[in-house]
Design a protein that fits this description.
heterodimer; A: 278 residues; mainly alpha; 13 helices; B: 358 residues; alpha+beta; Rossmann fold; OB fold (Dihydrolipoamide Acetyltransferase, E2P); 2 domains; six-stranded mixed beta sheet; five-stranded antiparallel beta sheet; 10 helices; 34% strand; elongated
Chain lengths: 278, 358
């Protein structure tokens, strides 16, 4: 750092870094390390037993599986939504644009109740799906629906600005060189969108893993079937099993961290490949 | 391959971009579409490329109807003003793109693609940049890569939209000479759009001057420069002085000066506009007994190969510009405020009635 000290219009590297670290410590690191600290009240055997009971394992699978699935759905349809919002003009476009942000603003419990009402077997959509043998409410599918709902804005909002910046000319260039529509999309547009799409995906995934409010209404919370990990933690807290709750929380934290770290790595790799020192 | 454009009309909302345009581009020629911004030149180019479709009219490539042919099937190479390179691909992959997206049956082998791309990169003299990414290149280099990419698909027609518009003056000059040489090597039918008359005059075999969605004149550079078909072309191609004059039976009168014209023999006493290029005005310090325009030297620009004089005529309000050689300037020993006599050498006259009609 000291070696290639550059003249900067806005100085203050030390000060700003100091504040950043302090802020991150107060808001993120200290509370999280408290969870680790609390867990140390358990012996390792107790810890291992707590976090590997079949009921807890099943909840990990559901939480991370459903979150991943919801994030993938959001990546695909979020991209589509962003595409429509940037490329076309149609009446009510502003309204649709505002609608995208609604899952951010809505209290998650409201979302959960609304989704449950709609997807219950006697609800508007549930009653239509019921005859086809598809049950949404009170099943893992319901969990995916809730997680998709709350994760939608992330992909749209990260991809949209990049898509707006994309020159339409590069697409025309591709077409004039003989590329068909799919080739133009997959070889010219998608590579430019990858970093933003991955960011959106990671955010949607992270949000889904931590989601509690909207899921517990629609999931039905049947142990081994539709019980998510955050609910297990809450249940343990209500039974005054604080160490047990933090133990599960720690496992969740580590898995989340590893997954996000992996996604970040992928993103770094793709953006580096994409623009090689832009 | 020749291009025939017939009765092309194109409107964007209430704005008429092209109004009944007819144009023939002979095979192997380098043609410039020249005009101010908004004259429809880019729209015409995009219609030839198939990136835009005309409201009415038709385009033929080598006698074959191509109006509804998709841009992918027109076999045109298109070069954009802002290069439109694929920034996530290396220079090599950019040039190879057109070959790689071909259907399997007609796609060349990897070795053949390699050979072709390097051949093209050598042609544009940038073989050493094959592994770089577009953001690492200068503007001039990017545009040459864009050209190599367009040539990779062996287009029958090369279309360039203000290809040097985003470059600085020096690079621009080098690159347009280079483009001319390249065209002389390849002989591919080319159309390029520009608003820079100097560029068009220097590079093109033939210039198409456009204004407000219509073609004003088509001709060789010398043709359009020496014999402009309209006041617009006169003004657009280089500097020009405009005089109010009267035409009567083949004679034009500007102030005290009378000039014999080759046309307008039967015209009776009509108002007209006379145009004279600055270098076609002779400057004297004495009258020599012949009728001349009297003027005062109001400003002297002596930097450059020619000395440019700004002159204030005594009986008129519009200033006149004249260009004389440095030698002549020394001979006359002019100063700001000197009294001079002007005689136009080469005058072209347009009747005012004819101008308002067009």
């Amino acid at each position: 750092m000291a070696k290639n000290k550059q003249k900067n219009v806005l100085p203050g590297f030390n000060l700003s870094l100091g504040y950043t670290l302090l802020y991150l410590s107060l808001i993120v690191l200290i509370p999280l390390s408290a969870a680790f600290f609390k867990t140390t009240e358990l012996t390792f055997a107790e810890f291992w037993h707590t976090v590997t009971t079949p009921r807890v394992i099943a909840s990990y699978k559901l939480t991370f599986g459903a979150s991943l699935f919801a994030a993938v759905i959001n990546a695909i349809f979020g991209l589509l939504t962003a595409w429509v919002l940037t490329r076309y003009t149609f009446p009510g476009k502003k309204l649709v644009d505002a609608l995208v942000d609604l899952p951010f603003a809505l209290p998650t419990a409201v979302a959960g109740i609304a989704l449950t009402a709609v997807y219950a077997t006697n609800g508007w959509l549930g009653s239509l799906l019921e005859p086809h043998g598809i049950k949404v409410a009170f099943t893992p599918l319901g969990v995916v629906v809730a997680l998709t709902f709350i994760g939608l804005p992330f992909v749209v909002r990260t991809v949209q600005p990049v898509l707006e910046d994309l020159e339409a000319e590069t697409e025309e260039a591709a077409a004039s060189l003989g590329a068909n529509r799919w080739q133009t999309f997959s070889r010219v547009i998608l590579p430019a969108l990858w970093p933003a799409l991955l960011t959106g995906f990671a955010l949607a995934f992270a949000r889904a893993v931590g989601e509690y409010g909207s899921v517990i209404f629609i999931a039905g919370n049947m142990p081994m079937v539709s019980e998510i990990t955050p609910l297990i933690i809450i249940t343990k807290l209500e039974q005054y099993d604080y160490a047990g709750a933090t133990a599960v929380a720690v496992v969740m934290l580590v898995i989340s961290f590893l997954l996000l770290f992996a996604i970040n790595g992928l993103q770094w790799w793709s953006s580096r490949r994409n623009s090689a020192s832009r | 391959m020749s291009i025939e454009i017939r009765n092309i009309k194109k409107e964007f909302g209430s704005f008429t971009a092209l109004n009944n345009v007819n144009l023939d581009v002979p095979s192997g020629e380098l043609v410039a579409l020249l005009g101010p911004s908004g004259c429809g030149k880019t729209t015409l180019l995009r219609i030839i490329a198939g990136l835009e479709s005309p409201d009415t009219g038709s385009i033929h490539f080598h006698g074959q109807e191509a109006t509804d042919r998709d841009v992918r099937e027109r076999q045109v190479g298109f070069v954009f003003q802002h290069y439109a390179l694929f920034r996530h691909m290396t220079v090599f992959e950019n040039v190879a793109f057109g070959l790689r997206v071909r259907p399997k049956k007609t796609r060349p082998t990897e070795a053949e693609i390699h050979r072709r791309v390097h051949q093209l990169l050598e042609l544009v003299q940038l073989d050493w940049l094959a592994d770089r990414y577009p953001p690492q290149l200068s503007g001039g280099q990017r545009q040459r890569i864009a050209l190599a990419r367009a040539l990779a698909v062996e287009p029958k027609v090369l279309l360039l939209d203000e290809p040097f518009g985003a470059l600085d003056a020096k690079v621009r000059k080098d690159l347009r000479r280079w483009l001319r040489r390249l065209h002389d090597e390849l002989h591919i039918t080319s159309v390029f759009v520009t608003h820079d008359q100097e560029e068009a005059l220097e590079v093109a075999d033939r210039i198409v001057v456009m204004n407000q969605g219509k073609i004003e004149q088509i001709g060789t550079p010398q043709d359009v420069y020496d014999n402009p078909a309209s006041p617009f072309v006169y003004k657009f191609l280089g500097n020009v002085n405009q005089f109010h004059s009267r035409v009567n039976e083949g004679q034009a009168h500007i102030g005290d000066i009378s000039l014999t014209l080759n046309a307008h023999h039967s015209t009776q006493n009509s108002n007209a506009l006379a145009y004279v290029r600055p270098h076609d005005i002779d400057v004297y310090t004495e009258q020599n007994g012949q009728p001349a325009l009297q003027a005062i030297v109001s400003y002297i620009h002596a930097a450059g190969p020619l000395v440019r004089l700004e002159l204030q005529p005594i009986n008129e309000t519009d200033t006149i510009e004249a260009e004389i050689t440095r030698e002549r300037f020394r001979e006359l020993a002019l100063n700001q405020g000197s009294h001079v006599y002007l005689k136009p050498r080469n005058v072209q006259v347009f009747l005012e009635s004819a101008i308002t009609q067009s």
